[in-house]
Amino acid sequence: MEVVSVKNAKKSFGDLDVLKDISFSVHKGEVLGIIGPSGSGKSTMLRCITQLEKLSGGSIEICGDTLVTEDADGNPVYSDKETCRRILLKTGMVFQNFNLFPHFSVLRNITEAQVSVLGIPKAEAEETARALLAKMGLADKADAYPCQLSGGQQQRVSIARALALKPEVLFFDEPTSALDPELTSEILKVIKELAAEKMTMVVVTHEMAFARDLSDYIIFMDGGVIVEQGEAKELINNPKEERTKAFLSKY
Fold first, then answer.
1. Crossing angle of helices 181-196/151-164, nearest 10°?
2. What global pTM score does this model have?
3. Which residue among 3, 132, 203, 249 has the highest number of C-beta atoms inside a 10 angstrom radius?
4. How many Cβ atoms are within 10 Å of 61's Cβ, its own excluded?
5. Which of 22, 44, 36, 32 minimizes the C-alpha distance to 2?
6. Exposed/middle/buried for 177, CB within 10 Å: 0-12, 13-18, 19+?
7. Beta strand 225-231 pairing with 200-204
8. Burial, 8: exposed, middle or buried (Cβ in 10 Å; 0-12, 13-18, 19+)?
9. What is the residue-averaged pLDDT of the chain?
10. Which residue has the higher pLDDT, 6 or 178?
11. 111 pLDDT exceeds 90?
12. What are phi and psi of 50, to 5 degrees?
């Protein structure tokens, strides 16, 4: 089953074409790794899928629901608000800079959306939050505030927050880029555990060994296009395109 389907996606900011005819799909239980240099369009692609940006053209489907398609003139046509909201609830996003509410406790950071967006009773939301914190090795941090946590701990809280809404697919935008190597290993361990549980994930990362070992499939982007794609180990170990070889030679 295709959980994510992107076809001929285009995104421009004024005269700058950031995405140029991008197409790919992700099936249930798969992990897609997206690699490439800064400015290649990786993060913009995630932001378009999770409705933080709007496409300039092309189509996106999530779990069989159409988010956006094109009219006869190639202009993007988005679905109605209710459909967009339903799709949004099927996606979770983990950002590189955590994006936690600094004035909320860890527990409230995880329960707030459950209560206000999903309408889950507070007691049930807190039970879910505490179970996720235990899973993340943070059972004793429920009453702490983000400023009292390390970067790795904050990122684990943000992953728990995303999981609390029970998304069908989880997107990671360079989840370790703000962390030092020791804390990076904490986050990679959590993501590997989610992959073992067959969580469908799309991971933008600069960690090449991690992308190779975690992903089922990898896309290499540069200049707003997909330069090369294929099975993870094959692409990382035996790239075919010269641009891919040049990029990977630096790692």
1. 20
2. 0.92
3. 203
4. 18
5. 32
6. middle
7. unpaired
8. middle
9. 93
10. 6
11. yes
12. -95, 15
